[in-house]
């Protein structure tokens, strides 16, 4: 009887799902896979960490990630495919040749842990450890690859970063694509730095926070060799001579706690703690963060937008020392969904034509701001000025957007776009921003031509011929030009270019775009818009829109601007460089 019972129990054990068996020790064998439709991730032996798919912010796409599985918010601490989220039906396979391979339901490879040359068919298993480290092992249990050596934005206790290691911030709390901030343990010096990068490249700007591991000692044997996050929650640089440089000396809370250190999307590097036994209402508590004031510390001469976008102002929240971005009065966000983005004027700005110059003072007034500065947007310095002289000079100057009258009687005039805006109680002086007196706000999408103007079905957006080659998105963006009062009137139905009759139709797209580019190069935009007086009234704006359109239809995808940059260029927030020929191989 006892033998029969034992046999039955053993048989039932064999019938258990392999996933359940694998989860008891965190080990996953080669050939196993996880799909976005699987409800059970690969978990560590204690169940504290899990490896699998998550849906950021309830989106329809999935992020391959590792997270704390025993706390309510299941905080993500590592992720693989932030730049290319996986569609529903995707799966990750554990292979002998390449380790972890993430593919879509159509077979497209989205991410892989290693190439064949690195692993050479040696992977025998994967292990989700209780440290939060997912490891690929060979048959002798030797580590071949581990997530700890390929961090995203977070480090965990027992994790070690070697020289050359990098943490990259996210774009936002819910956008896991690469952000503007980096933590680098520099290969050349062993110094630890925080810096911005010039997206979409990895080109770094100067550091806004730095720990010199040599402490000024030119002896390289004293430089840093490892950044260590120990099991107790302390983070330090281990020097070649085995001395330690602790990042922050603050004492750590005691108790049964989780720790993590994260480079947040706003550039703040923060150590957090969280109770392991959660009642459901606890959250991560910041212990320390660096730098103390990123608004002041970020070098504006190298990272021109600072923490916030153009024309915005950076402030520090006194509660958590995290930055907040605000638009000045009569300015609003370019993208309402991006509170850290650029701001645009909510009023129509007069140009610099002679008749407009005469009305500058009657159109504008100066709004005084307190404790605000854009320290790197000056275009003119006027010494020994009075406050009244400074204000009048800005009001009468069509280029002036802000005037700052300093305590030493110097007037600084600044133009758009304003960069690296910051709030500071110690700057002194007075800040005046120029805004329009009347309610001449920028017209919305429902803007119509003044009554009495002849409606014309053939009126198109600025340089409509150029748009024949644009994507639907770019066409949508450039239609915003209508809001500025620009229209393209087709004055002719045929245009002879190199002996070719130009009839409207798909076959003429290349000819139309080449013709538009020729008009731009030769300074004959009046021909392009059919001598439309309304468009010709502001040739500067007309030229800007044409340049944006030409950039959008470049044959090389890498040359086309991003959605954000198109918006900024159309609004005049950033300069528009001279575009190359949109179809260089079609020109004759």
TrEMBL record:
Stretches assigned to the Bulb-type lectin domain: 19-149
The keyword Transmembrane appears for this protein: yes
Record keyword Glycosyltransferase present: no
Stored Pfam families: B_lectin (PF01453)
Cross-referenced SUPFAM superfamilies: alpha-D-mannose-specific plant lectins
Transmembrane segments: 460-487
Matches recorded under PANTHER family: G-TYPE LECTIN S-RECEPTOR-LIKE SERINE/THREONINE-PROTEIN KINASE SD2-5, G-TYPE LECTIN S-RECEPTOR-LIKE SERINE_THREONINE-PROTEIN KINASE RLK1
Protein name: Bulb-type lectin domain-containing protein
Taxonomic lineage of the native organism: Eukaryota, Viridiplantae, Streptophyta, Embryophyta, Tracheophyta
